[in-house]
Amino acid sequence: MKTNRLLCAALLSTSLVCAMPATAELANxxxxxxxxxxxxxxHHFNEAELRTLFQAVxxxxxxxxxxxxxxxxxxxxxxxxxxxxxxxxxxxxxxWRENEAALxxxxxQYGVPAEIIIAIxxxxxxYGAFTGKYRVIDALxxxxxxxxxxxxxxxxxxxxxxxxxxxxxxDPLQPIGSYAGAMGLTQFMPSSYRAYAKDFDRDNKRDIWRxxxxxxxxxxxxxxxxxxxxxGAITYQVSANGDAYKSALSKGVKxxxxxxxxxxxxxxxxxxxxxxxxxxxxxxxxxDHEQLWLGLHNFYVITRYNHxxxxxxxxxxxxxAIREKKLAH
Length: 329
What we know:
Elements: H1 2-11, H2 30-43, H3 47-55, H4 61-67, H5 76-83, H6 86-98, H7 100-110, H8 114-125, E1 134-135, H9 136-146, H10 151-168, E2 176-177, H11 190-196, H12 212-225, E3 235-240, E4 257-258, H13 259-264, E5 267-268, E6 278-285, E7 290-295, H14 297-302, H15 309-328
Antiparallel strand pairs: 1-2, 3-5, 3-7, 4-6, 6-7
């Protein structure tokens, strides 16, 4: 079996030939057949080899169940407590110390603060401790052929994963990731891996599973590609007089209101912000009160990693806690 896997990986530069027995087989549906035909026609995969590959894929109901219960459905004060823990803060300080040279070099090159990169990896995988337990091909196939509303998205990621496997000489049955098919310390989806993963140490491998320097640079590259502003502020906590500010609260995360407009609505904003600057007014419910925050452009960039404003705020607050603890010791 081991020899067969090695042979499979070696041959993936030109085709997919790997097959392993699976406990549950993916149903042979019109959707699967159509996907295989698309991969053959558009990307010149071998049809017989693809069919053999998919015979080894497992359809897993628990993946669909996990997708139905995302952590972002929790209220802020509960969601925050998942990530703002002493162990995750201490782990971030340790990760910083162990990877200081790479973090410094990446921050200088890309302009993304080390603590932000660390916090993203901390929120995503607790610095590599939890990178997932599902085969990526199982997760993407289950969601691509079985999710009730997002099958198109996951089929596109499955397409990218097969292309990635061919490009990086990976056995597509080997990579392990999250229930959504996200991979490595960075939890990149296959399309993000192909577009943004970096070989920072120039060993001719973009390894976001085991190479911390590659993972660090890949996060920074992702942010820069989404127009991170070097030296720019991220968010400010604010207060408001009266209830007029509520008219500026809206869905989404993209900056959509000016500082000048917010001041007219009684929001007490930092004096250094220009009246014309566009921001997003965000409300975060605590157990007995509400917190108001301004999301600036760089806050919006963090939400390109995960569109939830809860995620972006957790990453920001974790980054600040890690930085403060590191500077204090």
